[in-house]
Amino acid sequence: MNETTIYLADDHAIVVEGLTEILRLRHEFKVLGTAANGEEVVQLMNNRRADVVIMDINMPKMNGIQCTSWIKKNYPQTKVIILTMFPEKSYVDQLIAVGADGCLLKSRGSRDLLEAIGRVTDSKSYFDRIRDFAGPDKHPVYNLSEREMEIIRLIVDGLTSADIADKLFISEHTVKTHRKNIFRKVGINSITQLASFAINNQIIRST
């Protein structure tokens, strides 16, 4: 029986190590390499295509949604399973839109992971747990805190870091730190992209 080749990607080394150990015990799987962000996944795929990519949704430089979109455009035969800590339905909607083959909560066990791999390699999807995914008002978007989402709204409204600091009674340095973290988590680099992200994820309403 042919081995199923796999790439693993997560910016937390302990997660990658755990996944690698689970798959190492199964002779039908072969982990070709690991990555800490989406850009590293791109490099791995360009070097050697894998049958399956399993990666976190929230990674620096290029997040799981962006990387999935790239994979499906360049290597459509590769299956993609996304891992997430937060059961938010908007994630599923975005992942389906970019062509992901499955989505799995990190709270699930190894049996669920193996089932997900089996399903996608059999050209089926693994969104069976979609009933567990709540609406966007119940969980943080992209692991954003309430304060970060508040700052997003103020940035999109056109306030400067100094204005936001005055309004929220915090230092300008703190605002800039929040801003840097927001851009990293979301995987964007401009106010225009931030506005689009905020609208698409219902952090603000389009006018």
List keywords for this structure.
207 residues; alpha/beta; 5-stranded parallel sheet
Oligomer: single chain
Counting helices, strands and paired strands, the structural category is alpha/beta
The helical percent reads 40-55%
Terminal Cα span: 56 Å
Mean pLDDT reading: 85
Net shape = elongated
Order of helices and strands: EHEHEHEHEHHHHH
Largest sheet: 5 strands, parallel
Helix count equals: 9
Contiguous uncertain segments of 5+ residues = none
How large a portion of the residues is in β-strands, by DSSP E? 5-15%
- Going across the major beta sheet, what is the strand order? 2-1-3-4-5
- Which radius of gyration do the C-alpha atoms yield? 18 Å
Instruction: Please provide the count of β strands.
Output: 5
Short synopsis of the structure:
The protein is α/β, with parallel strands linked by helices and 207 residues long. The chain has helices at residues 13-24, 38-47, 64-74, 89-98, 110-121, 146-156, 161-168, 172-186, 191-200; strands at residues 4-9, 29-35, 52-56, 79-84, 102-105.
Secondary-structure map:
Elements: E1 4-9, H1 13-24, E2 29-35, H2 38-47, E3 52-56, H3 64-74, E4 79-84, H4 89-98, E5 102-105, H5 110-121, H6 146-156, H7 161-168, H8 172-186, H9 191-200
Parallel strand pairs: 1-2, 1-3, 3-4, 4-5
Helix pairs in contact: 2-3, 6-8, 6-9, 7-8
